[in-house]
């Protein structure tokens, strides 16, 4: 059933929200409108770990969101599901008469108090969460699951979340600091997670959520010319297993680029006991060739110097003689465990003075002060807790490279 939001019902909701009661402060929802065409399923944890208070807080958030965001002209359809052990569709996407009807349906959603099986709920949401609203072909709008939880899952979430994403669902997470890491694992990116400290802070997330619902992921630098060099710490302080994680990460990032001599050129430098150009900017002119060469980059061991590696890039990689193109934006992305970065600030600034942007990705318990100096005055630094978490920061890296923060 298609959603029908009556002008009378919506206007009545707005008026009641805006009229202050005598002697008390009334919170006025922000004036928003979901103009993008999207199907949104709110997925509420109704488990003992979330607690009754947390569950009621999540329901209040969804109610305020729909009251503030849906209008007669909205192109968005909304649904609500709750879960503990099993997923229950309280309001299938789009199956409500108007906003007041949707709010009444939300009021009736019960608190379960059972186990927190978020992985199972995500899998079920992917299979049946969008019901009759799931149109096909070009007529199908973007489908988004917004997970609200304050409790860590008691089952595995990575597999079900990946399953949902491969079925074309865009996942967003809203929760407390205690579940931030799990929400990043579910959504695949810190950029898709909203964390709140208290109830009012939760309601302050409404404009941000609306923006995320209507924004589209960047397609990478598919049409933007760029000379890009990845610089990997291959020293003993990183170790071969973590170096392999770095290789996997840069391979994944490379998939976002159109690699050819007219658009994006990619080079790779590794450093440890020595500094080595794995391949230069003009060595491989197709993406498959770059991906193969990244897999073959050597782990070096020994003691690394990020400063020496950056000077190597300045003198022997990011030069016209080695394939760098005049007038094309240029960037170096440094991935390091932090040791050996103490001497890198001056060489990094030398690159910047020559028009090359430098982004630092620091992993683990790194030497923060040394990396901040390396990141420079623009503070171009991404901190990652562990090598296994690198994949969660791909969007941030691509956003920096392609979204105007670098290469101006």
TrEMBL record:
Question: Gene3D superfamilies, per this entry?
Answer: von Willebrand factor, type A domain (3.40.50.410)
UniProt key word Disulfide bond: yes
**SUPFAM superfamilies for the chain:** vWA-like
Q: Where is this region: Disordered?
A: 1-22
Question: So which domain of life are we looking at?
Answer: Eukaryota
Q: In the UniProt record, does the keyword Coiled coil occur?
A: no
Q: Which residues form the VWFA domain?
A: 39-213, 227-401
Q: Pfam families per the record? A: VWA
Q: Which InterPro entries match?
A: ECM_Assembly_Org, VWF_A, vWFA_dom_sf
Q: Which residues form the signal peptide?
A: none
UniProt keywords (A-Z) are: Disulfide bond, EGF-like domain, Repeat, Signal
Official protein name in the record: von Willebrand factor A domain containing 2
Q: Mind giving the lineage of the organism this protein is from?
A: Eukaryota, Metazoa, Chordata, Craniata, Vertebrata
């Amino acid at each position: 059933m298609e959603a029908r939001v009556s002008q009378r019902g919506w206007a009545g909701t707005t008026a009641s929200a805006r009229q202050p009661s005598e002697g008390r402060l009334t919170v006025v929802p922000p004036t928003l409108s979901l103009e993008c065409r999207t199907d949104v399923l709110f997925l509420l944890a109704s488990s003992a770990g979330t607690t009754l208070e947390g569950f009621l807080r999540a329901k209040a958030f969804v109610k305020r969101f729909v009251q503030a965001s849906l209008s007669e002209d909205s192109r968005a359809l909304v649904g609500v599901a709750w879960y503990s052990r099993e997923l229950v569709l309280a309001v299938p996407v789009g199956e409500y008469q108007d906003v007041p009807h949707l709010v009444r349906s939300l009021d009736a959603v019960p608190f379960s108090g059972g186990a927190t099986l978020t992985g199972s709920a995500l899998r079920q949401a992917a299979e049946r969460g969008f019901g009759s609203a799931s149109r096909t072909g070009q007529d199908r709008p973007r489908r988004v699951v917004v997970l609200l939880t304050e409790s860590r899952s008691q089952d595995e979430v990575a597999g079900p979340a990946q399953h949902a994403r491969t079925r074309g669902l865009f996942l967003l997470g809203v929760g407390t600091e205690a579940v931030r890491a799990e929400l990043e694992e579910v959504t695949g990116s810190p950029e898709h997670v909203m964390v709140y400290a208290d109830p009012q802070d939760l309601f302050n997330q409404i404009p941000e959520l609306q923006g995320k619902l209507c924004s589209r992921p960047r397609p990478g630098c598919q049409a933007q010319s760029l000379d890009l060099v990845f610089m990997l710490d291959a020293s003993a302080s990183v170790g071969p297993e973590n170096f392999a994680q770095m290789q996997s990460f840069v391979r994944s990032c490379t998939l976002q680029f159109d690699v050819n001599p007219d658009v994006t050129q990619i080079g790779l430098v590794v450093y440890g006991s020595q500094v080595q150009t794995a391949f230069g900017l003009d060595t491989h002119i197709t993406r498959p060739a770059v991906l193969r060469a990244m897999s073959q980059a050597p782990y070096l061991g020994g003691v690394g110097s990020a400063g020496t590696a950056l000077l190597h890039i300045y003198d022997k990689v990011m030069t016209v003689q080695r394939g760098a193109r005049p007038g094309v934006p240029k960037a170096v992305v440094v991935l390091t465990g932090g040791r050996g970065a103490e001497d890198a600030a001056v060489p990094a600034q030398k690159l910047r003075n020559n028009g090359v942007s430098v982004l630092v990705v620091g992993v683990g318990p790194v030497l923060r002060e040394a990396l901040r100096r390396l990141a420079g005055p623009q503070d171009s630094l991404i901190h990652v807790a562990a090598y296994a978490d690198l994949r969660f920061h791909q969007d941030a890296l691509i956003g920096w490279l392609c979204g105007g923060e670098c290469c101006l």
